[in-house]
Design goal:
733 residues; mainly beta; Jelly Rolls; Immunoglobulin-like; 4 domains; 9-stranded antiparallel β-sheet; 8-stranded antiparallel β-sheet; 52 strands; 11% helix; flat
């Protein structure tokens, strides 16, 4: 299980800005080495070995880790340096790596705090996690990460020689045998030389090499070809489990924000074919893809007027004519929850109409003041509370109209916030109390929706996948296999068979519907639903979840279908689902702007490209007069921007695709200056040249060279145009 943390860092090298702790990082393009420690085969792929004493250990111990397995490192004896450890070494080279990022997870064993010793003397001094160049005073250009027992802190050390070293200490001490996350960053031979350690997302002391090294700058440049993981030359074995060791190149990131104890939610929805009068079934998957446990999650499904609620699994906390609420959902890191519900589609809905429903999840907002008693001592009836709730929910589109016109994300936030308000007011209405409005949440909701055109009746037996078409390499795939008895007698037995794609990791299979069995040789899941006695027009679903194999390249297609057999009759082959691996960032490019414009309201436009997936939205950044950038969301490719006279504006854009990949760039792509209307020759200043133009064209029609001089567009150059130049005379942009 993961520790309740999701701490990654983004590195900012903007001017003199140094490292800041931030939200979860996707640095796949900057990853230069990754050891997963899943098994001996995964280690061998990196040309690595597990070493016991001085020989290769062919039977290393593995335990469940952060992702897949983690490797176990133990000390065997204390006779001499290097002979008391079981360590992994890899042939990945850090030669001449004067800057970089190292990340890994470790979990202290029960004997960690008692058996960590200097390997040569047996003194109780610490445990080693990482070594480069045999860290010691005798070895310049050496680097190490270790736990120092005397300090009770994790330490990142770089040595120049036997007397000069720099260290970054963790801000907190170790007090548990839980999983801990370590990230270290160093940069040498540049204007801003520094090093820093992060433990569980908390930054340690920031070390400026320019202040501490003899030469006034960092000269660290390793010249060895092996790194040790799980031990340190000076501090010995780690006495810990270690997982997910990664090395990155330093990246440049514009927006860096302090975030701690955060979790990320991924929500996906899929529904059966929309046919008038049919009972439709929708499936929702809520997945915690962060490293922190999330409690008290609110799941809100908005029902359109042509749907009538039938049932749900699990039971919702509340159902109205227009919404379904599930609350108190708790998800540990890596855990997911499946929710399904059935609704009746109005038989009078026209063919071709689009039916949809948006589902959002959000943690319950912050604690509120105590409820206030309602002055009237008479408690409202349950019917009155329900009526109030429906009225409240129906008012949401009106309340949120400005947000929904602004952007889809603002719309989602407003809908979810208002729906949470309505739900809370309903609960308190039943108790005879009322409460002040919920304060705005600082964490935006995560939402998804399923759209489907209303169609004529088709074979109701179908296969779905609760995921977007384009997915991340680690995407959870929940597959519903939907079946319906369209005959006129009951179906006593139903048999379902599903053969998995070769790119599915069969070790991740979870059979969510009872009575299913997996045959590893045939890669087949089977359900034998004997005695189910499915009545005419009744439906059922078999569910299972899987994940793709690790390391699949972008563009890999994962296909799946199933067969459904009613008793002895001919099997029905369902439709085929398709998912495509996509971890490639999309791109957004702004079209050029004129260097100077006289229009306060001018058009900016952009275009996007995605090598594999499909762009979901653009984020447009704008800066005024060289100030900080602000951003807004757009789903189209142009807009009218309202500027101010005399100001300069810079723009750039980023794209995000439907798989969740987002572009990282901060280079101004287009810029313009908004000059004054009275700047006739558009040289960004109102001066004698503009007055001369008015004089030359005075009383003339605005034609040819005189066209720009008609400043008020009244069809003639006159005293009004002269006055406009006079008002702005000697102004510049």
């Amino acid at each position: 299980m993961r520790k309740n943390w999701t701490y990654f860092i983004l590195i900012s090298l903007l001017l003199s800005t140094h490292v800041v702790s931030a939200s979860p990082l996707n640095l796949s393009k900057n990853l230069v080495f990754h050891e997963s420690f899943d098994n001996l085969s995964s280690i061998a792929r990196n040309n690595g070995n597990i070493i016991s004493d001085t020989s290769i250990n062919a039977s290393a111990s593995f335990v469940p880790g952060i992702e897949g397995n983690a490797v176990s490192f133990d000390c065997i004896s204390f006779n001499s340096i290097g002979s008391c450890v079981k360590e992994s070494y890899v042939t990945y080279s850090l030669v001449n790596k004067s800057q970089g990022i190292i990340e890994f997870w470790f979990k202290p064993k029960d004997n960690f705090f008692s058996d960590c010793k200097f390997p040569s003397t047996g003194l109780f001094q610490g445990c080693g996690f990482f070594d480069l160049g045999k860290l010691s005073g005798q070895n310049p250009n050496s680097m190490g990460i270790f736990w120092n027992r005397n300090l009770d802190k994790v330490v990142f050390e770089i040595r120049e020689n036997d007397t000069v070293m720099t260290q970054s200490f963790s801000n907190q001490t170790l007090n548990s045998t839980d999983w801990h996350h370590v990230v270290v960053v160093w940069q040498c031979n540049s204007e801003n030389d520094f090093m820093q350690l992060f433990l569980d997302g908390v930054p340690g002391n920031y070390m400026d090499f320019n202040e501490y090294w003899n030469d006034g700058f960092c000269t660290f440049k390793p010249n060895v070809s092996e790194i040790w993981i799980g031990r340190n030359f000076y501090y010995g074995s780690s006495f810990a489990f270690i997982d997910e060791f990664k090395v990155y190149e330093i990246v440049k990131q514009l927006e860096v924000v302090n975030v701690t104890n955060t979790s990320e939610l991924r929500i996906r929805k899929w529904g059966t074919t929309a046919v008038p009068g049919r009972t439709l079934e929708y499936f929702i998957t809520v997945e915690n893809i962060g490293n922190a446990t999330l409690s008290d999650i609110l799941v809100f499904e908005a029902l359109e007027p042509w749907f009538t609620y039938v049932s749900a699994i699990p039971d919702p906390v509340n159902v109205t004519n227009f919404s379904i609420f599930w609350s108190n959902v708790t998800l540990a890191p890596g855990e997911f929850k499946s929710i399904s519900y059935k609704v009746q589609l109005d038989s009078n809905i026209p063919l071709g109409a689009t039916v949809r429903g948006q589902v959002c999840v959000i943690p319950i907002p912050p604690p509120l003041p105590p409820p206030l008693p309602i002055p009237d001592p008479t408690l409202p009836s349950i019917d009155q509370c329900d009526e109030n709730l429906n009225t409240c929910l129906l008012s949401i589109p009106i309340k949120c109209i400005e947000e929904c016109l602004a952007s889809p994300i603002d719309c989602n936030i407003c809908y979810t916030q208002e729906a949470a308000n309505c739900n809370l007011e309903w609960l308190l209405c039943l108790e005879g109390t009322e409460i002040p409005p919920i304060p705005p949440t600082t964490q935006p909701p995560t939402c998804d929706q399923h759209e489907d055109p209303v169609r004529r009746p088709l074979d109701p037996n179908e296969k779905g996948v609760v995921a977007n078409k384009f997915i991340q390499p680690d995407q959870l795939l929940v597959y519903p296999i939907h079946f319906e008895n369209i005959g006129n007698v009951e179906a006593l037995d139903i048999f379902i068979t599903d053969t998995l794609d070769e790119d599915i990791n069969t070790s991740t299979i979870e059979i969510l519907t009872p009575n299913g069995n997996f045959d590893s040789e045939t890669r087949t899941i089977k359900w034998e639903l004997r005695g189910i006695n499915l009545q005419p027009n009744e439906t059922g679903t078999a569910l299972f979840s899987v994940k793709p194999l690790r390391g699949l390249p972008s563009g890999t297609e994962i296909r799946n279908n199933a067969t459904i057999q009613f008793e002895i009759f001919e099997p029905i082959i369902t439709n085929e689902t398709l998912n495509i691996i996509d971890d490639i960032e999309p791109q957004c490019t702004l079209n050029p702007l004129p260097s100077i414009t006289k229009r306060q309201n001018f058009t900016i436009s952009w275009y996007g490209a995605d090598a594999i997936g499909e762009i979901e939205f653009f984020r447009i950044f704008v800066s005024s007069d060289g100030g900080n950038f602000t951003s807004f969301i757009a789903t189209n490719t142009n807009m009218t921007f309202s500027g101010e006279q005399g100001k300069s504006y810079g723009f750039f854009c980023n794209a995000q695709d439907s798989a969740g990949n987002h572009e990282i760039q901060d280079v101004t792509e287009a810029s313009t200056k908004v000059t004054f209307n009275s700047d006739i020759n558009a040289d960004c200043k109102v001066d004698i040249t503009d007055l001369a133009t008015i004089g030359m064209c005075f009383a003339q029609p605005p034609e040819g060279l005189c066209a720009p001089a008609d400043l008020n567009s009244d069809g003639v150059i006159n005293i009004l145009d002269l006055a406009t130049v006079g008002i702005n005379f000697e102004k510049s942009c």
